[in-house]
Design a protein that fits this description.
The chain has 336 residues and is of the alpha/beta class. The chain is 51% helix and 14% strand. The chain has two domains: 66 residues, Ribosomal Protein L15, Chain: K, domain 2; 238 residues, CRISPR-associated endonuclease Cas1, C-terminal domain (Four Helix Bundle (Hemerythrin (Met), subunit A)). It contains ten helices and twelve strands.
């Protein structure tokens, strides 16, 4: 299970083999055996954690994530023994300058656009409003994005630096059509005018950004366990402190994990509470719970049904073997 601490003044302590959570009055809120904990997420200021808890988490392979109020990860604690293997890390770095970097970059964008297309098809099928205008708009959007997929297949180059601008142009135009469709589906009172990242003030973008922060934690954990270097990206260029490869790999899962979840919440009447720092703690708790439930739901993968968080981890391992030249890489596209 994922343990989320989102209350100011809470404390994490260790008693025997249990993680003990106390409130600011030092009353025990919850006790959880460490063997039941997958990871710990701290998303509030003023939370204390004992060194005994850190040591026990590290020994059990439990990651401790720290999130800002916007859902942006700003720190994490992991075991120093969980570092990239030399062969995998070297192969990933070398791939930047050859056809593997080109291939994986196209794979990530292809998977993202296909997932967007599938989500639009999902909405078209399940939308209660069956008006001809709306259905026509659905089809126009799908056709537009499928044309971008055709463009992607014709992009050629020997290394990612040669093709990044062309790939990102395709991704950007597909994303514009996708978010324009989203705008038509959401109530105007929500004030959604398109995707905004930093500095977003409307409730839809705030919730999306928080959801992506939750997903980033899951993807970062998978990347680390697979022995990959989280900062050595391909589509997202290097920047100090930026987990560029995590952001690249996330593209496969944004729609299936976050967009579908968050936009369903809004169409069902979810109204997040806001405060001076953005999302209120109660709303952050609701969003984190919904994202976690989605990660624990199952989808078809390699002929069987797996939880989405398991699929993320298996895809990370497949990427490691792809970089080492041991197999081809097939991106995940959720089945709608």
């Amino acid at each position: 299970m994922q343990v989320v601490i989102d209350e100011y003044g809470y404390a994490l302590r260790k008693t025997s083999e249990r993680l003990v959570i106390r409130d600011k009055e030092r009353k025990v809120v919850q006790e959880i055996p460490f063997f039941q904990v997958d990871d710990v997420v701290i998303s509030s200021k003023g939370v204390s954690i004992s060194s005994d808890v850190v040591e026990q988490c590290i020994e059990n392979g439990i990651h401790i994530h720290f999130l800002s109020n916007r859902g942006e990860p700003f720190a994490k604690l992991v075991s120093p023994s969980l570092q990239a293997t030399v062969a995998t890390r070297r192969a990933q770095l070398q791939a930047y300058n050859d056809e593997r970097g080109v291939g994986v970059s196209k794979h990530f964008v292809r998977a993202k656009i296909r997932a967007q297309v599938n989500l639009v098809k999902y909405w078209a099928k399940n939308r209660k409003d069956k008006s001809e205008n709306l259905q026509s708009l659905f089809q126009t959007t799908i056709t537009n994005m499928e044309q971008r997929l055709d463009e992607l297949e014709h992009i050629q180059g020997n290394k990612v630096d040669d093709i990044r601008s062309a790939i990102m142009s395709v991704e950007g135009r597909a994303a514009y059509a996708y978010w324009e469709m989203v705008k038509q589906l959401l109530h105007r009172d929500l004030g959604f005018q398109g995707r905004e990242h930093r500095g977003a003030k409307d409730s839809v973008n705030l919730v999306l950004n928080y959801g992506y922060g939750c997903l980033k934690n899951e993807v970062a954990k998978a990347v680390l366990l697979a022995g990959l270097e989280e900062c050595a990206g391909f589509l997202h260029v290097d920047r100090s402190g930026r987990p560029s490869f995590v952001l690249d790999f996330m593209e496969e899962f944004r729609q299936s994990v976050v967009d579908r979840t968050v936009l369903s919440m809004f169409t069902k009447g979810f109204v997040p509470k806001l405060d001076e720092e953005g999302l209120h703690v109660e709303s952050r708790r609701v969003i984190a719970r919904e994202i976690q439930e989605r990660l624990e739901s199952k989808d078809r993968y390699e002929g069987k049904k797996y939880q989405l968080k398991t699929i993320i981890q298996r895809q990370a391992y497949h990427l490691a073997t792809y970089f080492r030249g041991e197999r081809d890489y097939k991106p995940f596209v959720w089945s709608w």
